[in-house]
Amino acid sequence: MSTVKLLINGEFVESSTTEWRDVINPATQEVLARVPMATAAEISAAVSSARNAFKTWRKTPIGARARIFLKYQQLIRENMKELAALLTAEQGKTLADAEGDIFRGLEVVEHAANIGSLQMGEIANNVASGVDTYTLQQPIGVCAGITPFNFPAMIPLWMFPMAIACGNTFVLKPSEQDPMVTMRLVELALRAGIPPGVLNVVHGGEDVVNAICDHPDIKAVSFVGSTRVGTHVYHRASQTGKRVQCMMGAKNHAIVLPDANKEQALNNLLGAAFGAAGQRCMALPVTVLVGEANDWIPELVEKARGLKISGGAEPGTDIGPLISCAAKERVESFIAGGIEGGAKLELDGRRPEVPGYEGGNFVGPTIFSGVKPGMAIYDQEIFGPVLCLVRAATLDEAIAFINGNPNGNGTAIFTQSGAAARKFQEEVEAGQIGINVPIPVPVPLFSFTGSGASKLGDLGPYGKQVILFYTQTKTITARWFDDSSVAGPVNTTISLK
User: Fold this and answer.
1) I want to staple 193 with a disulfide (CB 3.0 to 4.6 A). Which of 31, 68, 234, 337 is the partner?
2) In a shared domain, residues 184 and 244
3) Within this chain, do residues 79 and 222 fall inside the same structural domain, yes or no?
């Protein structure tokens, strides 16, 4: 049985722990590897390595840092098929979804290669007589990232490339459920030229998370995952004076107006609700059908019924397995609860027949109509292929419904009316808006701007905002005197008149 290694000071090392967890293929239950729960000494060694490397890495010319990420994006592209196959084996996504996972992370790597034009300060000349004021965007030190199981390539690539490009060093804790593709990406990062100690990796569960939150040498923590864990991380790490950003749970909504392009809207809903088996915080698990759009439910159900459920590597697969047996049981319990709660089950995805994968963690596309607040299937994040349909009479009623939900990661509207779209984008309170775009995750030129209960911390995990998160703004006010200046007392109060 292969074991997943730690990365400390540029070396892949075998953990000395006595606690291990199996990495399991969710489609077959095959054990792929064992991952260690790192010891306190190993975590300390990783942070110490990062702290020592920071002394020299922070002084590395910005062009040298950028060239590493130019090389890194090339290596990711060259190894895309291998990375996708590994991700599918341990996480369950279809190969197409796996490549998408990697590609969205690759976009951030490409953005990191542009660090020379991103990490720039400002200058104001002659703010007073002979006085200039300017700012520097300097790295802050050792940073850490805690990443989830559902995007084991994209989320790590959101984190460590931008932090390291800014001149920081990094300690990464991948999900213990599917760390293998993350570690392969780390190998490629070292091949690209990241020096020893600049990037370190530890594995583990709650104890390792708490150690990261508590360690005095870690200056910033980035987290993506559940609301429960994210809230814990935010408060615990903040109490030790760290910068913290936590992207957490969601309950995203789409509005479908009756003037929408029906075929486009229905196909987009299927992909957004059921793609990646619904295991993404930017999925669309709730759709508000306005007016006559409610007549489209039978067509939506038939389209969903035709989706192919199988192992992620099978050609033509639309929906792969959930990450674990526990996740499957949880989703099935939500479905049972939805029926008991009074929602109408339009399509039941429980216990699908999947030839060749009888032991897999499969739940097929499931659709409820007549869903209302107060039902568990609406109030809680299911994280599975379950779509809740809500009826509304008007656009105003639909917007008010969405704004009544505490989460605010993203939302979308399907319409051919520019006026309706503009009203929607102005009045809806979610942080990321799609107009005929079902999953409006922005490209890295912009920042991920989830809001409400979906986010803790002011700054997003990539784009312009993350430069501010990973740097300290230092403001310098300077006056220089030439040799002919008349000597005399210096007025320590600079007049701006």
Assistant:
1) 68
2) yes
3) yes
Domain check: are 26 and 167 in the same one? yes
Q: Is 67 helix (H, G, I), strand (E, B) or coil?
A: helix
Residues 301 and 430 in one domain: yes
Q: What is the CATH number of the domain that holds 270?
A: 3.40.309.10
First and final C-alpha spacing in the chain = 74
280 lies in a domain?
yes
Task: Please check whether residues 99 and 186 belong to one and the same domain.
Answer: yes
pTM of full prediction above 0.90: yes
The answer to whether residue 388 is catalytic is no
Determine the structural domain holding residue 417 and report its residue range.
253-435
Alpha-carbon distance of 89 to 93, in angstroms, equals 8
Q: Would you say 349 and 370 are in contact if contact means Cβ atoms under 8 Å apart?
A: no
* Domain presence at residue 43: yes
How do the pLDDT tens digits run along the chain, 497 residues long?
799 999 999 999 999 999 999 999 999 999 999 999 999 999 999 999 999 999 999 999 999 999 999 999 999 999 999 999 999 999 999 999 999 999 999 999 999 999 999 999 999 999 998 899 999 999 999 999 999 999 999 999 999 999 999 999 999 999 999 999 999 999 999 999 999 999 999 999 999 999 999 999 999 999 999 999 999 999 999 999 999 999 999 999 999 999 999 999 999 999 999 999 999 999 999 999 999 999 999 999 999 999 999 999 999 999 999 999 999 999 999 999 999 999 999 999 999 999 999 999 999 999 999 999 999 999 999 999 999 999 999 999 999 999 999 999 999 999 999 999 999 999 999 999 999 999 999 999 898 999 999 999 999 998 889 999 999 999 999 999 876 655 556 555 655 44
Could you give the CA distance from residue 455 to residue 464 in angstroms, rounded to a whole number? 17
DSSP strands (E only) in 11-66: 11-13, 20-24, 31-36
Calpha distance 168→140 (Å, rounded) = 6
Q: Are 260 and 220 part of one and the same domain?
A: no
Q: Residues 143, 213, 281, 388: which is the catalytic one?
A: 281
- For the chain, how many structural domains are there in total? 2
The answer on 95 and 57 residing in a single domain is: yes
CATH of the domain at 123: 3.40.605.10
Q: Are 125 and 201 in contact (CB under 8 A)?
A: no
For 332, phi and psi rounded to 5 degrees?
-65, -35
- Cβ–Cβ < 8 Å for 171, 197: no
Buried b (16+ CB within 10 A) or exposed e, 381-412: bbbbbbbbbbbbeebeebbebbbebebbbbbb
Q: Based on the domain organization, do 244 and 203 belong to the same domain?
A: yes
